[in-house]
Amino acid sequence: MVVGALVLLALVVFPFVVPRPEFWVVSVGIRSLWLGIVAMSFIWMSKSLGLLSLGQLTFWGVTAYTLAILSTENDVPYVLSLPLTVLLGTAVGFVVALICVRTNGVYFLMLTLAVSQLGFFLVLNAASVTGGFGGIGGIRRPELFGFSFADRNPLYFAGLALAVGAYLLCRYIARTPFGLALEGIRDSPERMQALGYNIYWYRVAAFTFSAFLASVSGALALFYQGRITPGSVDLVRSIDILIVSVLGGIGSIAGAFVGATGLTIFTNFAQTDAIGIRRLTLTGLVFVAVLLFMPGGIAGLADQVRDFRARKRKSGAPAAPGDNPIPVTTAGTDTEHSTIEPQV
Amino acid sequence: MRQFLTITLNGLTLAALYFLVASGLTLIFGMMRIVNLAHGALYLLGGYLAFSLLDVSENWALGLLGATILVGLVGLVMYVVFLSRIEKEDMRVALVTIGLSLILADQMLAFYGGTAYSVDTPDFLVGAFRFPFAEFVYPIGRLFTLLLAIVVGTALWLFITRTRFGMIIRAGVDDRDMVSATGINVRLVFLVVFFLGSALAGLGGAIGGGTFSLAPGTDSEYLLYSLIVVIVGGMGSITGVAIGAILVGLVSQFALGYVPALASILTFGLMIVVLAVRPQGILGRAQ
């Protein structure tokens, strides 16, 4: 709690004290915030459903594209178009959820990947509406309730407010009966079904909420970029979200922002040719290395070091099972509900 | 009538290419429960290698064979170095293959640049085949793809259903631990399967690079179509892949021919209809 307040205080003071604000507040700050929110939608789904979705950019893109089309080309006021497009992104998430949550594990991964790729080819090919390869540019930043978000600081604070709000919402939902039921469904779907929970609709609801978070991020990202192109919803971008989540640690919601800041800073500095390897290759190498050697990501690093020390002391003791935040499809190996527990 | 025939053949030859690529994906998944999301990158690598080998040796068959074997070896190295130690964790493996596909695609971009390449086809595959009816003609090169897919598909089917090694693969699909308990070296079987599956992606790239172009982005396009094909047909089944490929090939080509604006939506619609009825795909087994 104290740590959280201090971090928040630092983030509020940050734009006023930092040198070169155009770089640190805009290129790093705002970008990390929207990237963090969409990564949070990924991590939240992974935490509450045990499913990894590569389709988060689809909902992000639906909101960003429709917002650009409505407000830039058809002059619909933002007061109307913002809620409408976020709602639309969420609704598309609901429809995709109806199909996707019927599957599990790697099937779900493949299916959501296929959805995001189809979204990419759709916006690329429907040039008459989406502007094709060049996308839609010239996005005006909004003026809402007397505030103008055209300057960098208001947009940064709007992003920060959204990020904090989304984070608190995730934390809150985890404690509601709904969140607890999701946890039960993730760990033991058969038992929850036997208890009378309709696991299908719980999963659809969780997926839809995650799509809502991604949509919010899409609106913020549109104002940050000032344009939207198919290049921002392609496979490499989906992998970016994955990298952010894995880097931050898939088990931790706040880790999304750690990972997002890490990737953003890394991307900015890698562009200056300070490093001899190509940026994407290096990104891929870091991603693979984190997956192979640091399954908990940056957020899980402290735990990992502690485990490592403890293991060294009790040399030879195996790592505790169950601390791997990346879900595993355990078809048929789940012994938990095959044993009959004694009645007390 | 002629247009209908052309579209049908377009669909079937495209299906042949999808089959070549996706059968490798499903072979690896069926045996090892590994979804290799670098499969599209291996396809593109196969195409580029065939192009370069043809450039050096001026022998088309050598380029084809070389690309197939080299891509198989790349897949093998990928498995041994990165995947074998974590292969029990299917999601982590899938994520690692995504990272590998990013590295492969970026290195290919660095080496071959952003321009589109095409693998030159030999003289006997250039020109049109004249059907004995309705004065109907069709490119020989594309018919060859269809023939090759039928040959490869039949060979795969015979290999899996009629040989001792295929028997081990089928047993491994059902119960890996039991197979290894009977004294069979499952490790070795895994290596062969991974080589074979990757080699099929390479062969697909070498063939597809002759009919279509090779450029950055081709990798994710073929990954997408392979995924749709195996999702529709059912993971792990070679026959399922054949059915999935034919459905996806025909639907996409007929959509392009008659309602071009809806082409990608209809392909997606096919996937949704199949999944709504059978979440595990047409020939997939229930999880």
**Strands side by side in the biggest sheet of chain A:** 1-2
Average pLDDT score of chain A? 82
How much helix, percentage-wise, in residues of chain B?
over 70%
Q: Number of helix segments of chain B?
A: 11
Principal-axis shape of chain A: globular
Number of strands of chain B: 2
Describe, in plain words, how this protein is organized in 3D:
The complex is a heterodimer of chains A (344) and B (287). Chain A has helices at residues 2-17, 21-49, 56-73, 78-100, 105-125, 127-130, 152-175, 177-187, 189-194, 199-225, 235-248, 255-270, 279-293, 301-313, and strands at residues 143-144, 147-148. Chain A has 14 helices and two strands; from the N terminus they run ααααααββαααααααα. Chain A has a two-stranded antiparallel ribbon with strand order 1-2. With 344 residues, chain A is mostly helical. By secondary structure, chain B is mostly helical. Chain B has helices spanning 2-32, 39-57, 60-83, 90-112, 140-162, 164-174, 176-181, 186-211, 218-233, 238-258, 263-277, and strands at 128-130, 137-139. Chain B has a two-stranded antiparallel sheet with strand order 1-2. In chain B, a hairpin with a 6-residue loop joins β1 (128-130) and β2. The radius of gyration of chain B is 19 Å and the shape is globular. Chains A and B meet through α5, α11 and α13 of A and α4, α9 and α11 of B.
SSE map:
The complex is a heterodimer of chains A (344) and B (287).
Chain A: H1 2-17, H2 21-49, H3 56-73, H4 78-100, H5 105-125, H6 127-130, E1 143-144, E2 147-148, H7 152-175, H8 177-187, H9 189-194, H10 199-225, H11 235-248, H12 255-270, H13 279-293, H14 301-313
Antiparallel strand pairs in A: 1-2
Chain B: H1 2-32, H2 39-57, H3 60-83, H4 90-112, E1 128-130, E2 137-139, H5 140-162, H6 164-174, H7 176-181, H8 186-211, H9 218-233, H10 238-258, H11 263-277
Antiparallel strand pairs in B: 1-2
Helix pairs in contact in B: 1-5, 1-8, 1-9, 1-10, 2-3, 2-4, 2-8, 2-9, 3-8, 5-6, 9-10, 10-11
